[in-house]
Design brief:
Largest sheet: 5 strands, mixed
Helix content: 10-25%
Number of helices: 1
Structural class: mainly beta
Shape: elongated
Number of strands: 5
Strand order of the largest sheet: 2-1-5-4-3
């Protein structure tokens, strides 16, 4: 088991115990927001920091999708 901390712009978004660590470039969904793994840093034996970049959806795009 790995203790994985997910960060976005130096702010912690989520902390989880996982059986496997996400790979760089992998798509991910945290708290209902889609994102992409930017970097993975292994600190100790089972502590991992993952930098995540979320996709921002503009309101106009949401309205176009609804139509």
């Amino acid at each position: 088991m790995y203790h994985v901390n997910f960060y976005e712009k130096r702010d912690i978004v989520l902390s989880q115990l996982l059986k496997s660590v996400p790979a760089e470039g992998a798509g991910i969904k945290i708290k209902g927001r889609k994102g992409k793994v930017v970097s993975v840093e292994n600190l100790h034996n089972n502590i991992v920091h993952v930098e995540v970049e979320t996709v921002n959806i503009i309101e106009g795009e949401l309205q176009n999708k609804r139509r």
